[in-house]
Design a protein that fits this description.
This protein is mainly alpha-helical. Strands 1-2 form a two-stranded antiparallel sheet. A two-stranded antiparallel ribbon has the order 3-4. It has helices spanning 2-26, 43-57, 64-75, 111-117, 143-165, 172-185, 187-195, 211-232, and strands at 85-87, 97-99, 121-123, 126-128, 205-206, 209-210. The protein has one domain: Lysozyme (Orthogonal Bundle). β3 (121-123) and β4 form a beta hairpin.
Length: 233
């Protein structure tokens, strides 16, 4: 029995190491676990570090304070923040324990969102597809890249959602809430939200998050960053 138990332990250890190696090959940014929370920032530090980048990447609909608020809520201003790992039942032993998503960086941007945003850029505080250079080689763990990518993605997705929602007029506050909703839930649920004239469903969730609580956190951070921006001039 001791020999069998030892063999099982060795097998489990080997599978565990194989799984870790496999997940690191699939998502090398998981190596940022070695940095941990060392780069987390308080809101004032986030604004001091990235304020000019938020302003430079902002658009007519995606405000600097919204970008700052999303970065603070998603990653505490940590440019190499990574997602948690999750257990899932699977017949594939390499899929049982793995990162919850492909998200990484200040905005926890996923691979599909990156693929969509990397075809565009922000020039003169407007999203464009011309004169972008090598945005397809952007890295989500680089703050300037992550901020521009997030602004592009949210700006374009907001335009898409409003076009799909039909005859809906959104004021500035509703657009900011819609952008946060898109960031959390994606265009599909956000379109339904817009069609309801920006009314959330009771208990509405996206992933692990209660939508109302998420938007409340983002809005609280927006107010804080508006104060920080005013103080810094």
């Amino acid at each position: 029995m001791v020999r069998i138990g030892g063999s099982v332990a060795v097998l489990l250890a080997a599978v565990t190491l194989l799984n870790i190696a496999y997940q690191l090959i699939r998502k090398p940014t998981e190596l940022f676990v070695l940095i941990g929370n060392a780069l987390d920032k308080e809101p004032a530090e986030t604004w001091a570090s990235y304020g000019p980048l938020f302003r430079h990447a902002s658009t007519a609909t995606i405000m600097p304070e919204l970008l700052a608020a999303l970065a603070q809520v998603e990653s505490s201003g940590n440019p190499v923040a990574r997602t948690y790992w999750r257990w899932r039942w699977s017949f594939n032993p390499l899929a049982i324990y793995r990162p919850a998503s492909s998200a990484v960086g200040l905005f926890q941007m996923t691979d599909p969102a990156f693929a969509e945003a990397a075809r565009f850029c922000v020039r003169g505080n407007a999203v464009t597809q011309t004169g972008c250079g090598f945005t397809s080689f952007y890295i989500r763990a680089v703050p300037s890249h992550a901020i521009e990518l997030a602004s592009v993605y949210l700006d374009r997705q907001m335009a898409l959602v409003l076009s799909l929602a039909g005859d809906i007029k959104a004021n500035a506050t509703q657009k900011q809430d819609l952008a946060a909703f898109i960031h959390l839930c994606g265009a599909g649920p956000a379109t339904a939200y817009a069609r309801r004239k920006f009314q959330m469903l009771a208990g509405e969730r996206c992933g692990d998050h209660l939508v109302a609580a998420y938007l409340a956190r983002v809005n609280a951070m927006k107010r804080q960053f508006l104060r920080l921006a005013a103080e810094s001039g």
